[in-house]
Design goal:
422 residues, alpha/beta, 9 helices, 26 strands
Length: 422
Amino acid sequence: MNDSQRNQRIVIVGAGMAGVQTAVQLRDQGWPGEIRLLGAERHEPYDRPPLSKALLLGQADSAAFEVDFPSLNVEVALGCTARALHPAERELETTEGRIGYDRLVIATGAEPVALPGVAASPDVHQLRTLDDAVRLRPVLAAGGRIVVVGAGWIGAEFATAAREAGCAVTVVEAADRPLAGALPAEVTEPMRPWYAEWGAELRTGTAVAAVEPGAVLLADGTRIPADAVVLGVGARPATGWLAGSGLELDGHGALRGDAFLRTSAPGVYAVGDCVSFPSRRFGERLLVHHWDNALQGPRVVAANLVAEGHADGERELVAHDPVPYFWSEQFGRFVQYAGHHAPAPDAGGPTAGDAGDATLWRGDPADRSWAVCWLRDGRLTALLAVGRPRDLAQGRRLIESGARLDPVLAADASVPLKKAAS
């Protein structure tokens, strides 16, 4: 360890999972210098998954991380929002004034996408922050009519919670199916009936034209009564504050990180939802907006920050190339996904000896539990599991190892997936 690190300050911008875990990992991996964590919200740093579940339904009062920041000697500045970055001077402009740094970690996450033509109002909500969840609690408790705009992961989870609370729910999706931006049509179509099973109405292939007092007007002229509207039309990297900094962004507006999560500016790393990175495993640049990525990335960033100042200068940097993973609890089902896949030209089930990309099913999607596997050149690259957590756990390890699968065995739902590895 270089003794000069004891006199260096690392500033972390963003107090969500990625930012908090970066601070924790820095101390766990031996960083001796100052650590300052900046959070734009005034709440104690908190976890996000409970927002659409227990906290939203009033089943929990707190989602705060169980981290003892004073014992870690981490200074936390709440209500401190970054406004601009000056890499040459190694300074941040914030709502609390200018802050200098020796090393910087950007962990500002993502922000919800606005719906064009829909103005903010007390009856239009989003679900991204703790304050959003608190505002939505009485809306659900009132048991009124709710229109959810967007049938993605968040839209489905909120619709589930609203039905549990006894609300009348209509979900409106501009695409022709739910989860259109995440999964192929043959996989999402079996999910369509889930909405009706839970008493929610799903309208696809129609956009929202306007939100009026007490109603949502669709592009086809339909007017849906609504006591509240919840927007869930996606998120984008929260990098707008970096305009003029010179940091390189990708085509999605995310920071363009290298394999070690370094940005284009010296001494500046990025982690979580705001940064894309090159994956050797999948052969393309990935932008992952999921909780597990915000948990894994900090280990890499902390290791590399510590390694940069190692006394012997021989410690190698650690590459960030995880197997992406996320889960969703919706309509009484536990949905999990691991890996990364591109649309496969062959949508049918493969047979032994097939080459190229293929999609195969484990179980009947009309049942309560089933899974879908995506193979590339015989190797598992991604897996979606509905009510089959063992498939997910085994599949994730197979993706990590790059093992080839026997497609006939892999398509047999009665055979453990690991037994299909050749």
